[in-house]
Amino acid sequence: MQTTTNWSALLGNTSPLRIGIAGLGTVGAGVIRLLETNRELIAARAGRAIEVTAVSARERGKDRGVDISGFAWEDDMTALGSRQDVDVVVELVGGSDGPALTLSRAAFAGGKGLVTANKAMVAHHGLELAKAAEAGGLALKFEAAVAGGIPVVKGLREGTSANQLTKVYGILNGTCNYILTTMEATGADFAETLVEAQALGYAEADPTFDIEGVDAAHKLAILATIGFGVELDFANVVTTGIVAVRAADIAQADALGFVIRLIAEADVQQDADGPKLLQRVRPCLVAKNHPLAPVDGPTNAVVAEGNFSGRLLFQGPGAGDGPTASAVVADIIDIARGDVGAPFSMPIAQLASLGPAQPGGRMERTYLRFTVNDRPGVLAEITAAMRDANVSIESLIQKGRGGDDGEVLVAMVTHEGPEANVARAVELLDGSDSLTGEPLVLPIIA
Amino acid sequence: MQTTTNWSALLGNTSPLRIGIAGLGTVGAGVIRLLETNRELIAARAGRAIEVTAVSARERGKDRGVDISGFAWEDDMTALGSRQDVDVVVELVGGSDGPALTLSRAAFAGGKGLVTANKAMVAHHGLELAKAAEAGGLALKFEAAVAGGIPVVKGLREGTSANQLTKVYGILNGTCNYILTTMEATGADFAETLVEAQALGYAEADPTFDIEGVDAAHKLAILATIGFGVELDFANVVTTGIVAVRAADIAQADALGFVIRLIAEADVQQDADGPKLLQRVRPCLVAKNHPLAPVDGPTNAVVAEGNFSGRLLFQGPGAGDGPTASAVVADIIDIARGDVGAPFSMPIAQLASLGPAQPGGRMERTYLRFTVNDRPGVLAEITAAMRDANVSIESLIQKGRGGDDGEVLVAMVTHEGPEANVARAVELLDGSDSLTGEPLVLPIIA
């Protein structure tokens, strides 16, 4: 039954688990604060004490609100990977490459376990790191890399492990969700809401990774790998951000019974030449009675649909030092318990290598919004393009001047049909001088 | 790092994990179907094959839609605990005592791991069973005992393990939630809705355990033990069912911006003589913007609030053979992986033994509904009782004849105040011939 090691740990027969932390920003300080605040409880649950022995960061002197004088200091964080008094390296530096990756490789080379909150590094180099962990019989854990404090990596790795998942999707970026739900509440447009979000700390000074959907794509690629047993394929996540979404679109969606959310979605579809992985991040219209519709502010939520479990929802704070520290320390406790195994739920050699799916064949209802010149024939031109591309229109609204910048908006919802047809219709209108800007195309999730 | 056993399992160096299943009802058949349907996937994730070797049930010949001819048969299920070809016993018989408990004891006596879906047995005998598992270094897992397919036992045991939980609460009984949300949708009263639920299979022929809140109390006691690190104390769960909830109450709640849900809730409060455990199951008014409000039909949902994680929500199907089998097999996979440890997240010896809390001191807003005789002075009598008990009334509605059975209903919402005052007010009215029935008192969750 191979349980003895776990139990011996739980019955307190083992020495403390010794932690080396690289990166002492808000999350690193949060981890230290958490380990202190809940020390006894954590020792009881882990079956052994968890002790920070060494730390590394850019500036040693900086005030972080936590006392680090009791920990050994390394100017070169990579050295944490070879310290004799470190069992597990906690990487909280960030960045897909550079120091974080160098440290992670050093940790495995030094026979340490690795806990990281670094979604970019896991999305880009997760397979390499998992192979190194596998080869060394070492721990690689990254609960904090996806959806902050929500235990969704464990939820898929342990909770739905008996299931063939049919679909994994959700709201994985708190910044975008804050912006979209604030636009919803205030009627304000994207630009001013972003500025407000930055002022309130919900968006970074350079928000590109968030608002362009890259951050959500990192997390989606990780969830898809665990959920479907496929190799990480971040490069093929089709990603659209929220920059083009206007207050007028949110108002139209509301009138039609929908909200707009940035949805990250992955599933496996059978193409002519076998199963393919479809991974997409894009703003969608979400029906108001869908479990993801009420998810507002910086909250994250993940839906996993299994062939036996049915539809499961995991929801909670998607970021913040407290929730992220909670996920990091949960991983440390797992390691202390001896609950260590394949980071992506099965050995790397058994992960399937699927190519990217061609989404064109999918049937969807779609919301389209055009900004047009107010002159005769424009509607005829648009509707003709729809007809020629075999797109069936369910409803159409033309919104006259007084909308954004006095432009005329034409918004429509299509009947369910192949995505490719909608793309074709937009193509047919490409370059038309009736249009004053790029059309917005949002799929509808009911 | 104690990871080698896990990895050796994951790298396929181990023999199959051999399962003996007791109880072949819909869940037992579901487990066999799941192990067959997802066989390869499960072997990859478990790191080894999982084989059913022996089964036991009441009737051998019965058609269950699955082929059991390949498994050894035991007429006496207790014998599964001593078979040499069984590593893990799966108990799907049910009942807090009797055969299920006898089998579980036999399993540990025989050095087997135990996976059970039996909430009643775990709520009543979980400590004894966990001690036996601990003593033998054996697995005891019961994900399926709480909230069907939702991995909330793992969610609290592994997901929030770094946190001091402040509160665990949720919707833990699908039958009650189906009835209440159906009453909400149809306006029908309790009795007829129950009959309909029975016809549709959402309520059992004898629904007592469900509608009286006992089933939810079993689950709550288990979650409280894991979440707070306290000894199981099912006996002290204060339980009120949904039988007294009328269509008129749901209509009043709706008018006030609330829905009515059966809420199971546990927390630890500091009483004069130290920390005490408060466990309650009762119908509550839930604000429509609360994450539990949209939870309808047989769906379950659990909210866990941690001191670092913040508020986490776990939601999904609360029952059914598929979701329950998904939870049972997830436990089996954990055992195959070697992820085995303290069933209640810490060793039994370290669970705190708290007495039950006195709820009277809690501050709550409350909904009260009286059925009264339509005659002068009744309102004066009720409002005088409120005044004398120091209960401050926020709003009051008298609903004349034409309501249920032509009775007169008086419904009110109080300002936030001590629960004890409301109880006192109801006491003052006890025996008054103005009242035609027991008052209904529902706390408000905002």
Would you mind describing this structure in some detail?
Chains A, B: NADP(+) binds at residues 22-29. Two copies of one chain form a homodimer. Chain A is α/β, with parallel strands linked by helices. Chain A has three domains: 7-145, NAD(P)-binding Rossmann-like Domain (Rossmann fold); 152-317, 2-Layer Sandwich (Dihydrodipicolinate Reductase, domain 2); 360-445, Alpha-Beta Plaits, CATH 3.30.70.260. In chain A, 35% of the residues lie in helices and 24% in strands. Chain A has helices spanning 4-10, 26-37, 39-46, 98-109, 119-136, 152-159, 174-186, 190-199, 208-211, 214-228, 247-256, 321-337, 378-388, 419-428; strands at 17-22, 50-56, 72-73, 88-91, 113-116, 140-141, 165-171, 238-239, 258-271, 274-287, 299-306, 310-317, 363-364, 366-372, 393-399, 408-414, 417-418, 440-445. In chain A, strands 7, 8, 9, 10, 11, 12, 14, 15, 16 and 18 form a ten-stranded mixed beta sheet that branches. Chain A has a six-stranded parallel beta sheet with strand order 3-2-1-4-5-6, sandwiched between helices. Chain A has a two-stranded antiparallel ribbon with strand order 13-17. In chain A, strand 9 (258-271) and strand 10 form a beta hairpin. In chain A, helix 7 crosses helix 8 (190-199). The two termini of chain A are 45 Å apart. The interface between A and B is large, with 80 and 81 residues. Strand 12 (310-317) of chain A pairs antiparallel with strand 12 (310-317) of chain B.
